[in-house]
Amino acid sequence: MAADYVSPFDDRVRTPEPLAPRPASVSGRRVVLLDIRKNRGAEFLDRMETLLRAEGAVTARSAKEIFSKPAALDLIDDIAGRADLVVEALAD
Amino acid sequence: MNAAGTHMTAPPLSVCGLGPGEITIASLAADGAALLLFVNEDCPTSALALRRLGPLCPAWQEAGLSATAVFEDPLEVAVRLARRLGWAGRVASEDPPYQTSRAYGLVSVPTAVLVDNAGTIAGTVTGWDHAALVALIGKAGALLGAGLATPEATEPLLKPGCSSKAAIDPELAAAMSAPAGSDGIEEMFERGWTDGLPVVPPTPDRVEAMLGGSDPSFSLGLVPPDMGEATLERVAACAVLAGCRPAYFPVVVAACQAALDPAFNLHGQAVTTQPAGQLVVVNGPVRDAIGLNSGMGALGPGWRANLTIGRALRLLVTLTGGGMPGKLDRSTQGQMGKVGFCVAEDEEVSPWEPLHVERGFQPGQSVVTVIGSDAPLSISDHRSRTPEDLAWVLAWAAASQWSTNWWPLQEPSVFVICPEHAEMFRAAGWTKQQLRRFMFDAVHKPAGELRRGETTPFVHAADPAAQVPKWASPEAIVLIVAGGEAGRYSAVLGPCTGMGSQIVSREVGSPWPLTT
Q1: What parts of chain B have a pLDDT lower than 70?
Q2: What's the whole-number average pLDDT of chain B?
Q3: 3-class secondary structure for B308-363?
Q4: Is residue A76, in this structure, part of any structural domain at all?
Q5: How far A17 CA lies from chain B's nearest CA (Å)?
Q6: Where are the domains of chain B?
Q7: Residue numbers in A near B320 (CB within 8 A)
Q8: Interface ipTM above 0.90
Q9: Rounded to whole angstroms, how far apart are CA atoms A65 and A73?
Q10: Quick check: is A64 in a domain?
Q11: A23 within domain boundaries
């Protein structure tokens, strides 16, 4: 019979958030490009922005305070209020 | 019973893998065909098969044949063995009673089973039989309409396998696989409640003793990256696992409180590709009270308090926080300080005010300070005869920290000055501030000499002739004293960089015990 131990884990069940539906087209959609402030991430987003605009997307930029911390909740709320789609750039 | 026969439908898989999704025959054979290689840890022939077939997997995958090693072992064992043996295919694990092995009628391992994309078994080979395996791979190639790489015909060409765990009586198999209840230490490995070293099983009695009257439900906050809640009960479980005595627990708790301060940015440190560890520095009377070593071998093994306090914090991050190396902890190479690193300052030998007093505490207070740091670099200097020469040597040893041309560093370098070096500064009457200033002034280079490879925007923006210091300010040079009385070896620990991580201190046991 298994011994009784005190678990170091937080056993709360976390259900992964389902992925949002993928859009068939970006044309006319509001796209926020989120710079996490990792080195050269902005260059990647510049190129993405050019390509998205060519596809008819309406783009805007946003940025995290620092790459190594989770995005602030008010930043997430702000983006959620003005975007249909988000592109987040990792870089280096 | 023989292995599952050709032309029968491949039985469903009841295995787990590294990814979140279910592993099915249909998904494995989706690109054309699937090869299942049943193996287990105890079998040398399985190791041979993994070593010889493993390097071929990427080319097979490109041609449409997915190869999966199905281990009759826990997943962490499977992953470790696969990596060690060069198996470049998928890895899956099945638990007792080895339902999948039974469904495939396994008698021995290794057994290779080829499944076509209709889910039908197209062929089976047991043991290491080079010719039969080449024929099986040839059959896979025929299914895919491609020529597939085969293993070299080197000895041994034939090697019998070992008994599949599924072929052993279930009760015997359970007894052979470190059964729960009879070997607590092995059970901890099976549960994954470990950093890879043996741990002390956290029985309720041990955890209660560790808590020492503190409220088990008292929360220190959420531990990144997975934001598990650090109740004192879980912190105590980590301290037990780490091997702490109950007397260490107030120090462990203070270290956890300091590390969970948002200013420390444990989140970034826990998941970064950097080698960042969480250095724990202890000052004050608690050092002697619990037997922390600040003398000979102060940065190394030999003292339970030093080794287990740092480890308890790391286990909290790894287990409660979910920052498991290779999973959410993405450290490229890691470093041994990530097992745990706790240093006590030798305040009695130091010519200077101790770290905690510098940081605003009273000398009689016991204080834990946490610093995001890299591994220590030892600095030998037995030749300097002036404090200026010694300070210059110590400072320049840190010139390559983070990266050779990354100047200036915003984050702190921690110098652990040995007693003989400290004595030279004491004899010359140097204050800590003087030494820090001298070291800061000593290490600078023209920006033009730093424009190679990884360097800072600051260097690129500066006039090529402008002198750039290694540190952004003298305050980025942290000085503590520890080590044996003989030997002129100091050390410097590089920073965790770019995280905005600050040094955080917390008083030990104030208040204590912790109750809601």
Answers
A1: 1-5, 170-182
A2: 94
A3: HHHHHHHHHHHHHCCCCECCCECCCCCCHHHCCEEEECCCCCCCCCCHHHHCCCCC
A4: yes
A5: 13
A6: 16-172, 185-507
A7: 8-10
A8: no
A9: 12
A10: yes
A11: no
| Half-sphere exposure at residue B501, Cβ-oriented, CA atoms within 13 angstroms | 31
Residue A11 confidence (pLDDT) above 60: yes
Is the CB of residue A30 less than 8 Å from the CB of residue A58?
yes
Q: Report which DSSP code applies to B365.
A: S
Q: Do B234 and A7 touch (CB under 8 A)?
A: yes
Tokens of B383: 């030749």
Contacts of A1 in chain B (CB under 8 A): 180-181
Q: Is B221 helix (H, G, I), strand (E, B) or coil?
A: strand
Q: Looking at residue B176, what is its pLDDT?
A: 59
Select from B201, B241, B272 the Cβ nearest to the Cβ of A68.
B272
B361: DSSP letter: -
DSSP class of residue B450? G
What is the number of structural domains in chain A? 1
Q: Give residue A52's domain range.
A: 30-89
Q: Amino acid identity of B316?
A: L
Structural domain includes residue A71? yes
| B474 vs B132: CA distance, rounded Å | 69
* DSSP assignment of B142-211: HHHTS--------S-SEE--EE-GGGS-HHHHHHHS--TTT-HHHHHHHHT-SSSS------HHHHHHHH
Distance from the Cα of B184 to chain A's closest Cα (Å) equals 8
Closest to A58 (Cα-Cα) out of A76, A38, A84, A39: A84
The model's pTM is 0.71
Separation CA B406–CA B329 (nearest Å)? 24
- Other Cβ atoms less than 10 A from the Cβ of B300: the count is 12
Joined together, the tokens standing for residue B165 give 């765990």
Residues of A in contact with B204 (CB under 8 A): 4-6
pLDDT band at A57 (very low <50, low <70, confident <90, very high): very high
Cβ atoms of residues B222 and B230 within 8 Å: yes
Q: ω before B20 within 30° of 0 (cis)?
A: no
As a whole number, mean pLDDT of residues A69-90 equals 92
A68/B268 touch (CB, cutoff 8 Å), yes or no? yes
d(CA B482, CA B491): 10
**How far is Cα A30 from Cα B83, in angstroms, rounded to an integer?**
44
How far apart are the CA of B318 and the nearest CA of chain A, in angstroms?
10
Is domain B16-172 in CATH 3.30.470.20, yes or no?
Answer: no
